[in-house]
């Protein structure tokens, strides 16, 4: 369920974001109610994204894919439709999820751009303690590739990332909050970016700051100790609620890059229903205890457990991309990337 505080944050975010995208001259043409197909897509993804009561590596890939579709230019599905997934080294570990989501977009008759953002929201909500983020439907697909060399590398410094993100309308807090997705991040070899990698929590921030994180990215260390970002790093990382309060609007901003929010249909209720476990309560997913976990903890979709399906993929990729490729895999680099 979305708490009142989240509601007010979403509202605040919409006030802040809308002016830069709104086109008052253009008549708003959108569906007033969320198409029911999204509930079907959610239950379909659940079996792939939840295992042992937390998010799988497929979910981690989906979260990362949302960043890769949007950040280079626009959330337009081009990461799949213009073959950026197969043609660009930084997407090499997401070829599988690209194929999966491309097929599902066709079979459910939804836009590829939408299903990428939807899968990220469902992926986040699939993690133990994962927050409910917004989801808007109605993006237009494009098979024209977005510009290259827009994604920051795994050892990018804070100054460089700030310039990259501010050029796209993100605040320092947004940048720091988005980096927090590494709370469920794994390196290519499967090693964790924080000691509770199966749980979406703010411990990531304190562990990177104090050096106790098992395997931190250089870029995250830089955000934590640069004078330009360390204040935000501390405040966002104060608690799981401060993390969530910063992450949810930042993720919404990301998911709307290049799109006019006023022309989209608010389908956020599908995400909150998913997180609340109503789908599993209806018996949509067999053998899952997501529902009972979520009932007890509000937005939490699942409880901590581990998933090991990344290892074979990690091994397969590790040799050909070398040390930098270590940080390319899964949500570890949802937001901070190798650019080959
Ligand atoms: C797919 O959706 C579009 C609208 O987005 C609609 O025009 C079309 O008829 C749908 N196709 C099928 C097979 O339902
Ligand atoms: C930060 O990174 C940029 C881009 O790689 C580089 O030009 C700059 O010298 C770096 N700054 C510091 C302080 O290392
Ligand atoms: C930040 O941490 C890195 C890695 O430990 C270190 O090399 C760098 O000197 C630190 N920078 C500051 C400003 O403390």
From TrEMBL:
Transmembrane segments: none
EC number assigned by the record: 1.11.1.-
Region (Disordered): 211-240, 287-309
GO molecular function term, any single one: heme binding
Protein's UniProt keywords contain DNA-binding: no
Domain Plant heme peroxidase family profile residues, every copy: 16-271
A GO biological-process term: response to oxidative stress
Catalytically driven reaction(s): 2 a phenolic donor + H2O2 = 2 a phenolic radical donor + 2 H2O
Keywords recorded for this protein, A-Z: Heme, Iron, Metal-binding, Oxidoreductase, Peroxidase, Signal
Residues of the signal peptide: 1-22
InterPro entries according to UniProt: Haem_peroxidase, Haem_peroxidase_sf, Ligninase_C, Peroxidase_pln, Peroxidases_AS, Peroxidases_heam-ligand_BS
Pfam families referenced in this protein's UniProt entry, alphabetically: peroxidase, Peroxidase_ext
Residue ranges, compositional bias (Low complexity): 218-240, 291-309
Cofactor(s) the record lists: Ca(2+); heme b
Similarity-based family: Belongs to the peroxidase family.
Annotated protein name in UniProt: Peroxidase
Source species: Lophiostoma macrostomum CBS 122681
């Amino acid at each position: 369920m979305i708490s009142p505080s989240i509601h007010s944050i979403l509202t605040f975010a919409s006030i802040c974001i809308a002016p830069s995208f709104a086109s008052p001259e253009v008549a708003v043409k959108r569906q007033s109610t969320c198409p029911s197909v999204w509930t079907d897509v959610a239950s379909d993804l659940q079996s792939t994204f939840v295992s042992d009561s937390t998010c799988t590596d497929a979910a981690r890939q989906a979260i990362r894919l949302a960043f890769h579709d949007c950040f280079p230019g626009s959330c337009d599905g081009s990461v799949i439709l213009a073959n950026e997934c197969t043609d660009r080294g930084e997407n090499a570990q997401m070829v599988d999820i690209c194929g999966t989501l491309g097929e599902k977009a066709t079979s459910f008759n939804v836009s590829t751009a939408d299903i990428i953002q939807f899968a990220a929201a469902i992926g986040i909500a699939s993690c133990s303690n994962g927050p409910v983020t917004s989801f808007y439907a109605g993006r237009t697909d494009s098979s024209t590739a977005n510009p290259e060399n827009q994604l920051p590398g795994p050892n990018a410094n804070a100054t460089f990332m700030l310039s990259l993100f501010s050029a796209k309308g993100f605040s320092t807090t947004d940048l720091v909050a988005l980096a927090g997705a590494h709370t469920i991040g794994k390196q290519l070899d499967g090693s964790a970016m924080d000691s509770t990698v199966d749980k979406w929590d703010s411990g990531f921030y304190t562990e990177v700051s104090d050096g106790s994180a098992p395997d931190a990215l250089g870029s995250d260390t830089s955000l934590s100790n640069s004078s330009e970002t360390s204040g935000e790093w501390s405040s966002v990382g104060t608690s799981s609620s401060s993390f969530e309060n910063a992450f949810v609007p930042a993720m919404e901003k990301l998911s709307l890059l290049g799109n006019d929010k006023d022309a989209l249909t608010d389908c956020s209720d599908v995400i909150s229903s998913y997180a609340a476990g109503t789908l599993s309560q209806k018996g949509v997913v067999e053998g899952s205890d997501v529902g009972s976990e979520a009932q007890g903890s509000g937005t939490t979709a699942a409880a901590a457990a581990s998933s090991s399906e990344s290892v074979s993929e990690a091994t397969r990729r590790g040799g050909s991309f070398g040390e930098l490729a270590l940080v390319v895999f899964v949500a570890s680099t949802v937001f901070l990337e190798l650019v080959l």
